[in-house]
What we know:
Elements: H1 2-18, E1 27-29, E2 35-37, H2 38-43, E3 47-53, H3 61-77, E4 82-88
Parallel strand pairs: 3-4
Antiparallel strand pairs: 1-2
Amino acid sequence: MKKSIYLSIVLLFAFSISKSQTVMQLSGVDCNANTHDLLADLDAGKAVILHFFMQNCGSCPPPAKKIQAMANNILAMHPGMITAYAMPFNNTTTCT
């Protein structure tokens, strides 16, 4: 019984991710005046890590540090094959 429930959950998950093939365009200029384009990175065959954050989130630093450490490890293991974007939630930060 447990195997059939597990199998149905896996199949539902696989079906749901197989339908998500449309990517929203993210492009812009960072604080160092470098231009970034999500679709261009994906077309170049790169994997992309998207990390959204909130500046004034009091409980966010511990998980954010774990996410940053994970992203750094992945980027070090696959140099030039992965691009990472860290973006503020609701444009809540400035370059200053």
